[in-house]
Design brief:
Layout: H1 9-19, E1 26-31, H2 50-56, E2 64-67, E3 78-82, H3 87-93, H4 99-106, E4 110-113, H5 117-127, E5 130-133, H6 148-159, E6 164-167, H7 168-176, H8 181-204, H9 211-223, E7 228-229, E8 234-237, E9 258-262, E10 265-267, E11 270-271, E12 275-279, H10 286-304, H11 312-329, H12 335-339, E13 379-382, E14 385-388, E15 393-396, E16 399-402, E17 409-410, H13 419-427
Parallel strand pairs: 1-5, 3-4, 5-6
Antiparallel strand pairs: 1-2, 2-3, 7-10, 8-9, 9-12, 10-11, 13-16, 14-15, 16-17
Helix pairs in contact: 1-2, 8-9, 8-13, 10-11
The structure holds glycine and manganese (II) ion (MN) (2 copies).
């Protein structure tokens, strides 16, 4: 792994918190994600299973975590099953976790090899009454392939149909949405690396550069710090800035245009999520600045609204009301557009058609119950935008915010966002003028 070791007390505490939510006489099984096939004999890069990581810190493929807090045999109360290292594996895939390393990483004392799993599972199934298995219950998940967890659910229920089965996902959502101080530190570290990438990229932007070259600047800043892209970067110049999920990143940035950068780092599997919109030539036009200031006012107000007790849907409505006012000021909407609007599809949606933000953590669009009020420990993104295809540009700004009892903490407060700050950054020492093209 590229990130610095994480204190296993984090994972130990996470397991303790989960155990407190279980029925007596329960078993929990959490599987690693599959290494998914690509073409021919190729595979995709494995994405660690977020629940397995949350509970153990383990990223290695094929690993299985078993918790059975009331098991008669004390050694079976908490077990991590791993691939057994062997010389063949060492030659072809390199080093795999040995028992001591796995214990140091996870805080789990009982490490067994996968070959023992079926026997231990059978012994435990003969003891327990309740079985908690995992499934992807993210509201927006589109799962077309059967995951390792899903295959395990099917097989376990076929073999042991008379146990009482429960959804582990509900418990994991409740646990993961509240970040502990150690988790917040990891998100802050990801944000610091994101900042480095942004500063580097902003100084590089100038007319004539290709969006993909800007992506490479971020990659350089992220990878050297042991981080990676938290999600496929969106580097969208000119009219591309109005395409919400623009991923091509292959166009040339032109003088007079803006370039929207929705790019952030993930460190130790914890994600950050940043968006900034820059003037390609280093100076916003009057109109670009007007729209930019509108979006910035909304972002600032909605950051202040990240307080305990706030409901996501109210927060979204407040932002939409504010954006509607801004759109009137910008001349993009007329009062009659609002009077005549279909309440199910308000006029403002033409220019702001997405959610204001989402919870952030081990997943970029993290798990959690968005119908519940914000609570201390939640980390939210705040990402308003105004997209005007007819004027050839859109502006989105996005910061990450920690909800606390004492009010919101903007984790990206030190990443330039005022339009003058952004211009100064682009034109300052080491900036675009130093690299004429
Ligand atoms: N970059 C993903 C998002 O902003 O939600
Ligand atoms: Mn984003
Ligand atoms: Mn986001």
């Amino acid at each position: 792994m590229r990130h610095a070791p994480i204190n296993p007390s984090l994972f130990k505490r996470n397991r303790d918190r989960l155990r407190r939510l279980l029925h007596a006489n329960s078993l929990v099984v959490v599987n690693a994600n599959d290494v998914l096939p690509a073409n021919a004999d190729g595979t995709l890069v494995m994405v660690p299973n977020s629940d397995l990581f949350h509970l153990s810190g383990v990223e290695q493929e094929e690993s299985i975590l078993v918790l059975a807090p009331d098991a008669v045999d004390e050694s079976q109360r908490e077990i991590l099953f791993l691939r057994e290292p062997n010389p063949h594996l060492l030659t072809w895939e390199g080093h795999k976790l040995d028992r001591d390393e796995a214990t140091r990483l996870s805080g789990i004392k009982e490490i067994r090899w996968l070959g023992e799993f079926p026997t231990v599972l059978h012994q435990l199934m003969c003891e327990v009454e309740h079985v908690y298995l995992n499934s992807n219950e993210h509201r927006r998940a589109v799962v077309e392939v059967e995951t390792r967890d899903a295959r395990f659910v099917r097989e376990c229920q076929r073999r042991y149909p008379l146990h009482r089965y429960h959804r582990l996902a509900r418990l994991m959502h409740a646990l993961r949405v509240v970040k502990s101080p150690e988790e917040v530190e990891l998100i802050k570290r990801a944000s610091r690396i994101t900042r480095q990438g942004f500063l580097r990229a902003a100084k590089f932007v100038q007319p004539g550069v290709n969006e993909m070259e800007i992506e490479a600047e971020f990659a350089h800043a992220f990878i050297r710090e042991g981080a990676k892209f938290a999600y496929p970067p969106i580097i969208a110049a000119g009219g591309n800035s109005c395409v919400l999920h623009y991923l091509r990143n292959d166009a040339v940035c032109r003088k007079g245009d803006v370039v929207l950068l929705d790019v952030a780092a993930s460190y130790g599997n914890y994600n950050s999520d940043l968006t900034r919109t820059l003037p390609v030539s280093g100076k916003f036009s009057r109109r670009q600045k007007q729209v930019y200031r509108s979006v910035l006012r909304v972002m600032r107000a909605m950051i202040q609204a990240c307080v305990p007790g706030k409901l996501h849907r109210e927060w979204q409505k407040e932002a939409e009301a504010m954006i509607q006012e801004e759109l009137l000021k910008l001349g993009l909407l007329k009062p009659r557009d609002i009077r005549n609007q279909d309440p199910k599809n308000p006029a403002l949606k033409r220019y702001f058609m997405h959610g204001l933000g989402h919870v952030l953590g081990l997943d970029v669009h993290d798990v959690g119950f968005m119908s519940e009020p914000f609570a201390p420990g939640w980390v939210l993104t705040v990402e308003p935008g105004i997209y005007i295809p007819e004027e050839g540009f859109g502006v989105r700004l996005e910061n990450d915010v920690l909800v606390t009892e004492k009010g919101p903490v903007d984790l990206m407060a030190d990443i330039p966002v005022e339009p003058e700050e952004v211009e100064a950054l682009m034109n300052g020492a080491g900036g675009r003028k130093a690299r004429p093209r």
